[in-house]
Design a protein that fits this description.
Elements lengths: L1 E2 L6 E3 L5 E10 L2 E10 L2 E7 L2 E7 L2 E11 L4 E8 L7 E3 L2 E2 L4 E8 L2
Antiparallel strand pairs: 1-2, 2-5, 3-4, 4-7, 5-6, 7-8, 8-11, 9-10
C-alpha cells in the first residue's frame, strides 16, 4: 500500500494486473477499431470520522468499438461506443464510470 497523496484520507493499493488490447483496420476511407482495457481488483482503506473502513473495487473490463469515415482530406465523421459490456468500473472509491456510452462526431483537420 502507498498513499495517493499526503493530504488524503485514502490508502490505495494498485491493481494486481492491468492490460489493454487495441485492434484497428483501415479500408479505403473507412476505419474500424476494437479496444479492451482490463484493470485488476483494488482495495482502498478509507478513514472516515476516525473509523477505518475498506472499499474493494472488482476486476473490470472496458470494451470499446468504433468506426469512422473520411469524407475528404479535412472532414471525418465517427461513432464510438465505450463500456459496451456495461461493466462496473470504479476510478476512485464510490465513483463509478457511466455505463454503456456512445458518441457521434465530426473531426476537422486543418
Amino acid at each position: 500500500y502507498d498513499f495517493d497523496s499526503y493530504d488524503s484520507e485514502y490508502l490505495v493499493s494498485d491493481a494486481n494486473m492491468r492490460g489493454n488490447l487495441n485492434v484497428e483496420y483501415m479500408l479505403r476511407k473507412w476505419k474500424f477499431y476494437v479496444a479492451a482495457d482490463m484493470i485488476g481488483s483494488r482495495h482502498i482503506s478509507v478513514l472516515s470520522a476516525g473509523a477505518l473502513g475498506e472499499f474493494k473495487m472488482p476486476l473490470a473490463v472496458d470494451l470499446g468499438a468504433g468506426l469512422s469515415y473520411r469524407i475528404n482530406r479535412m472532414v471525418e465523421i465517427y461513432a464510438d461506443g465505450k463500456n459496451l459490456l456495461n461493466s462496473t468500473i470504479y476510478d476512485y472509491a464510490h465513483y463509478l464510470r457511466p455505463g454503456i456510452g456512445f458518441m457521434l462526431g465530426v473531426k476537422l483537420d486543418f
